[in-house]
Amino acid sequence: MKALSTTDASIFLLKVQAALEQDEASNQPILVRCSQIAKSGHSAENAWMAWTEDAQGVTSAAFFAPPDPLWLFCEPAPKEPSLRLLLNLLRDVPFKRVMGKTHVIETFSTLTRQLFKSSIQMIGSQNVWRLTRPMAVPFVAGYMRTACLPDADQLIEWMETSRTDAPASSTRPLQRQTVLEEIGKGSFFVWEDGLMVAMAGKTHLTRHGVALGELFTPQMLRNRGYATALMNTLCQQVFREGNSFCSAVTDPGNAIAAHLLLKLGFTIISEIDEIEVSS
Predict the structure, then answer these.
(1) Cα–Cα distance measured from residue 249 to residue 239, given in angstroms and rounded to the nearest whole number
(2) Which residues in the chain land under pLDDT 50?
(3) Most CB within 10 Å of its CB: which of 30, 124, 154, 228?
(4) Where are the alpha helices (H) located in 128-254, listed in sequence order?
């Protein structure tokens, strides 16, 4: 087994993309971020990538592009020798936060404590959900439309409210310019029933699927089926566009979101943990 590293996202994708796409829904954030860097035509500042491989192929991978956490991959099960090799390469990489599937983070945490005497603090977890076939849901008055720039103030207000209601669901501050750019790209959608009553967005697009998020309905308009109708219509659109799946992430304690996704036919496929490492 050998370990290699690079700062070239194109090389990293060439080596590990097929392995990551074996569970594309769970690995969408790393695939999207890496693709963004590769398409930019130049290396991102301080970006670092590494992987281990044996005769059968890639056994683990690490991707670090500040300010994002270090992302870890190791499948089909945590291979301690692979993660040990990655840790040796990580000695001089200035990461603090690490994300990955629960079983990978558990093994990584144990090795980090053993090798570096580091302390580990759990930051949070997310459930990753996947839908491979849209479901029929009851009729709800209204229709879905693509959000436009005049909607921006309302959407930003809703997103800020959502982050206030569930601060653990987002570790990054809301950037107005980013929201405006995503609206311009057609990434946000609203449900109209005389007025805007719900919103959702496409957050990650990979080769075979689309991640959905930013779902929100104002408190006074909840329990009317608007969010369910919007998500279902958006999922149908994703499949009509030729994608194989839709995905979403939720806080494990968010029973309302879990109930909605189950109603739409989503199933949990993995749990992602985030930790903070300090020496």
Answers:
(1) 18
(2) 169-171
(3) 30
(4) 152-165, 176-184, 226-240
